[in-house]
Structure prediction request, 602 residues.
Amino acid sequence: MAKYLMKGNEAIGKAAIEAGCKYFFGYPITPQSEVPEYLSSELPKVGGVFVQAESEVAAINMVYGAAAAGARVLTSSSSPGIALKQEGIGYLTNASLPAVIVNMMRGGPGLGTIQPGQADYNMTVKGGSNGDYRNIVMAPASVQEAVDMMMEAFDLADYYRIPVMVMSDGLIGQMMEPVSFDYKPCKELPPKDWALTGMGEGKKHMVENLVMDADECEAWNHDHFKVYNAIEAAEQDWEDFMMEDAEYAFTSYGTSARIAKTAIGILREKGYKVGMIRPKKLWPFPIKAFELHDAKIKKYLDVEMSMGQMVGDVALACGDASKIEFYGRVGGNIPTVDEFVAFGEKVMGGDK
Amino acid sequence: MSIIFKKTRALTDLKMHYCPGCAHGIVHRLVAEVLEEMDEDKNTIIAVPVGCAVFANKYFNFDSIQSAHGRAPATATGIKRVHPDKLVMTYQGDGDLASIGTAEIVHAAARGEKITTIFINNGIYGMTGGQMAPTTLPGMKATTAKAGRDPQINGNPIRMSEMLSTLDGPAYIERVSVSTPAQVTKAKMAIRKALEMQKAGLGFTMVEVVSSCPTNWGVTPVKAMEFIREKMIPYYPLGVYKDVTAEEGK
Prediction:
């Protein structure tokens, strides 16, 4: 299969096109601007549409319209821009509309910094919009994985009628790696008979968001949670890295997990029985991984480019918060292999 | 026996929830009649707002979506770009279009999105109960400007048709009213013209309707219609603000 040397942001754009997405609505923000730049020239070549919106708020509402119209549709942004999109993400969710949203995270809060970060876990995984809801959240750790996840994201969005977030960071967005594109639908997709297409000679379609009757609104919530329960049962996804004999396990995702892999290699050379549970989806969180490994794990070493936003989910998954030690860097700083090795040695304390 | 009048097929049979003297019902009917007369109702998708008209989707008998507050022009943009062969409309009130949604309407107009916006301007927030709107007249009372709107404290009203007509993207912008039968007839003609110009792909089109809210104005339906003529229209003059077909003819 042909390999291309591509920047993460551009590869994400190409992956969307390969997956049949013809509509992109977005707004510039560092470090994701190559996504709209790439798609502004590439989408028209496949009969698609690129619109540079006046704001993130407008962009996500264009996505709302295009998704309701039955299209595969993408928007991308970075942390403060994703914060602006939260209202629209809630509307998409309530109306059960499929869409893919890329977040190339940077350091925060507020305007923060333009360097990579992972501090949008809470906003994205726990939900930054109002109300009870979940979105599928995918967390690639390489450009190739970002490509593969983008393609899967469109299928999952259409299959479950839910927004899917691909949550990466500026490092993967800006990095060049060899990638190949091989889109094969991962689901048998139902027809979008609910989409706004003009009623023609059929019944009218309505995409609704306001549910005045309390019982009806509650029923909508319960319907959403039936879907969420199905997703939790079917879609947990993680990588076991050197977990066969591990007595200690790093927990990490995305760029920090990639750095942790190198650190684990060094710690293994030093004789430590250490591995990593790397969630590939942050929601649904891979609880099954912890059910599989927890009995033989003495400590979890959670490493992130945040102040520990995933620690809570690791604690719920393993059932014992006292088993978790945390090390993180924030503000756009990328942790080094040496820092993770030192953290590992400190936690494991010569227990080889 | 010949039928001289019947309800348009483009409205459902649901009883509308609007207050007595509210003009939403009139404008809904005009939109629906025009679409049926053009035989385009089954080819139309409308984005309805947040505000009293949030349930317009239940009354219009064609495809519809409930938008976030102020975002209908962005939502309609997404729909129109996917379905360029459909007629795509927004139906918005003054709080929706001229306050929280100013960015979306200005940029949809500037892009020349081939959509038609029906803008209901009654100078008050209806659904939330009579708060000051961006279009509330100076001196007009609101629950958030109890002594009447004081431009020194509350700022000045916005004239959207005039403002948007300075842009190059709009093909047609007209301000109409529905406080007399003659005005209703002219309003219907304006809506028809806007939708025909959208169909011809000429650009963004908007019809602003100077409208009523007897409940929150605290007057009877008849007095509300008088208020439109005596107070609202002098501040919001009726007329065509932009018409690219007329400009071509010059």
